[in-house]
Amino acid sequence: MRVSKVAVVIAAASALVLAGCSSDSGDTAADSGTAAADTSNADMKICMVTHGDGGGFWSVAKAGAVKAGEDLGVTFDYQESNNDAEAQAQLIEADVSGGCDAIAVSAPNPDAIKDAMAKAEAAGIPLVTMNSGSQVFKELGAFTHVGQDEIIAGREAGTKFKEAGATKVLCPIQEQNNIGLQERCDGAKETFGNVENLQLSAGLADLAKSQAEIQAKLESDPSIDAVFALNADIATAAALPAAQATGRDIMIGTVDLSGDAVQAIADGDIMFAIDQQQYAQGYLSVALLYLNLLNGHELGGGLPMYTGPGFVVQDNATLVQELATNGTR
User: At what angle do helices 110-122 and 85-97 cross, to 10 degrees?
Assistant: First the structure.
């Protein structure tokens, strides 16, 4: 019975990575999902702790993880910290003492969670990192990482801007102490060259202020003709209106999807979005931990398992919009 499930999970997980997975549906923070479709493995408890905020991106990642739990019949618990690294560390420690058999963790601030991860490792709990942490997963005791390499994603974005004929790219960073965001800008600089970072003081918490800061930078430096937004909401609610306010033809690219971002791509207002396919990140993380508990597998060969970058451009935006209605993109 269990052997057949493994085959099903591997086939399903592979299909998800190829097909891609982001949506703009919301969910609440610090929520949990318990698998109910099949209870034959209900004695296995797999937990996930992310820095998520319950918004469109993380609701899709959670949906993938919950679906994997349902498919596998395990008990699954999801918690998120709303970008509070200290709270995330506390949630991980609670999972260690709360009977979790395996844990998946996002790691945008590795230093803040390393002690909690060490406690999990010392307790013999299998670990994977997901979404962020591709460069540090081994240091955190994880046997693999599920997500996209942010430097590679940045490199691909830089190549897109270069091919489009841009001359200078602005890279606004919406969160402090998130190494993945910095890596995206660094990757773009590797392939494009002329990239300038801009640390936003309020980020997603005050999109009007972020728009004003981006607009001020664009107006003070007319040589900037492209913006690499690192978040879909920053792209649509800050970078795009800031660019339009200057009256100049400024290219916009972004990381991650939202309904507004995909529509802007379809309309030709945004050039591209990098899709790291977070539904697959959630699904695969649970499946990999299940296989470890079931059969001792440590898949990935000591390397990350990439779910991206994929690209949404005008040619495939309509298809992505259709898939988003299923809550998997």
Answer: 10
Is 114 exposed, middle or buried (CB count within 10 Å of its CB: 0-12, 13-18, 19+)? middle
Q: Could you read off the pLDDT of 156-207 as tens digits, one per residue? A: 999 999 999 999 999 999 988 888 899 999 999 999 999 999 999 999 999 9
Query: Is 296 in contact with 288 (CB distance < 8 Å)?
Result: no
Partner residues linked to 171 by β-bridges:
197
Per-residue DSSP letters for 52-120?
--SSHHHHHHHHHHHHHHHHHTEEEEEEE-TT-HHHHHHHHHHHHHTT-SEEEE--SSHHHHHHHHHHH
> CA torsion angle for 158, 164, 170, 171 (degrees, to 10)?
-40
Q: Which residues contact 58 (CB under 8 A, 6 or more apart)?
A: 27, 50, 52, 80, 278
Residues 124, 292: Cα–Cα separation, whole Å: 12
- Cα–Cα dist 152/172, whole Å: 18
> Other C-beta atoms within 10 Å of 163: how many?
8
- Which strand (E) or helix (H) includes residue 158? helix 150-163
Question: Sign (positive/negative) of CA torsion 265, 269, 272, 278?
Answer: negative
Q: How much is the pTM?
A: 0.77
d(CA 213, CA 209): 6
**Peptide linkage before 309 cis (omega within 30 of 0):** yes
DSSP one-letter string for 124-147: T--EEEESS-TTTTTTTT-S-EEE
